[in-house]
Amino acid sequence: MDISTDKIVEECIRAISEKVRNLKSLNIVVAGKTGVGKSTLINSVFRENLAETGIGKPVTTHMRRIEKKDFPLKVYDTRGFELGREVQKEVKNEIMDTIRAGLATKDINQAIHCIWYCINTASNRVEPEEIQWLKDFSEENRVTQVPVIIVLTQSFSKKKAAQLKNILLDENLDVVQVVPVLAIDYEIDDEYIVKAYGLDKLISVMTEALPDELIDTLQNVQKASLEEKKRRAQKAVATAVAASFGEGFAPVPFTDAAMLVPTQITMIASITAIFGVNVSKSVIMAFITSALGTSGATIAGRTLASNLLKLVPGAGTILGGSISGATAGLITTTLGEAYIQLMTAVYKGEINVNQMNSKEIRKKFKEMFAERFKVEKDK
Ligand SMILES: Nc1nc2c(ncn2[C@@H]2O[C@H](COP(=O)(O)OP(=O)(O)O)[C@@H](O)[C@H]2O)c(=O)[nH]1
Ligand SMILES: [Mg+2]
């Protein structure tokens, strides 16, 4: 049976766009006084310049919703916290109304999933009325249970941030975490610049706080933690391996090796969505042809099986016309990890896939697979 490489590539592209299209929308309320650094935070955490470009649509008196077409994130930016108790109460009611309205739809895409309450570390003190606001809010949120994360913004002084964090923790507030961050480098003077930090921690805390069905979205939209993207991508590989092991538990006759391909396409689509990078057809083509060890338009099932086997060090050659389930799993792992490496390089800007021709991309992949061999052999 001949397998068309073009068809595999097309299936990949289709699976990627379907996966991305079907990501649930992640919806976050960002609260705090004007000037604390909400917009700066939003722009530093998410990979689209939301707060800058999207002026946002007023949804209540003190809340604007910022979103972008084909981007699975809605940020509710609040204003008015600096205007005193009355307004703060109004803001609280508006947030609660929005939470309840979202829940009433029974649609995860409409629900509010998380609140970031921002306090500026540099302002030196936390107002008692803000503590009270958080307590009142928690009281009303008791049933709805939307997780609240306190973000200590502009924490260029780590010492001050730690003190503030302790003060807040002593209040026994019903919050998931208190996370000090510095969203962008802070220049104290020409010679002394404090490096941005803490946003990756915020993503880790979010990863813990959100339900599993929103984690692919979180990883897709965030640009603050490569580690969390990789971790999630490795989970996608593990899922695919479990599936290919199932498929291959009874040894896979290598004429049927193509049976594994749909699982691997799903895996590639998941990883791409998690990284949130744009991949062109030529990149996928280069990846597939390097992985399959062919540059032809079609490949025989038997050749496909033995070429895939070459990816697995120590697997040897095919004996008796089938591959074991364990081997099928190893092939899938190797493909997945190579693809994660590729996505990491694209994400870091180490390779610009739009500027490489397919021959260069193929060369790069060959190196990656070779690298992977080496790692396996060294183990
Ligand atoms: N260097 C540095 N400046 C910040 C940071 N966060 C906020 N700022 C500055 O503080 C000011 C107010 O920030 P902004 O994000 O507009 O606050 P918002 O009103 O809460 O949206 C801006 O001039 C920012 O440049 C940060 O993490 N690092
Ligand atoms: Mg703002």
CATH architecture label of the largest domain? 3-Layer(aba) Sandwich
What is the string of helix and strand elements?
Answer: EHEHHEEEHEHEHEEEHHHEHHEHEHH
The overall pLDDT average reads 88
- The N- to C-terminal Cα distance equals 36 Å
Bound molecules: guanosine-5'-diphosphate, magnesium ion
Count the strands? 13
Instruction: Briefly note the structural class of the backbone.
Output: alpha/beta
Count of alpha and pi helical runs: 14
Number of domain units = 2
CATH structural fold name of the largest domain? Rossmann fold
- What is the spatial order of strands in the main beta sheet? 3-4-5-2-6-7-8
Describe this structure in words.
The protein is built from 14 helices and 13 strands. The protein starts with a strand and ends with a helix. The chain has helices at 5-21, 38-45, 50-53, 85-104, 128-140, 158-170, 199-209, 215-221, 226-247, 261-275, 281-292, 301-310, 325-347, 358-378; strands at residues 2-4, 26-31, 57-60, 63-67, 73-78, 114-120, 148-153, 177-180, 186-189, 192-194, 252-253, 298-300, 322-323. It folds into 2 domains: 2-19 and 225-378, no CATH class; 32-221, P-loop containing nucleotide triphosphate hydrolases (Rossmann fold, 3-Layer(aba) Sandwich). The protein has a 7-stranded mixed sheet with strand order 3-4-5-2-6-7-8, with helices on both faces. A two-stranded antiparallel ribbon has the order 1-12. It is an alpha/beta fold and 379 residues long. The structure holds guanosine-5'-diphosphate (GDP) and magnesium ion.
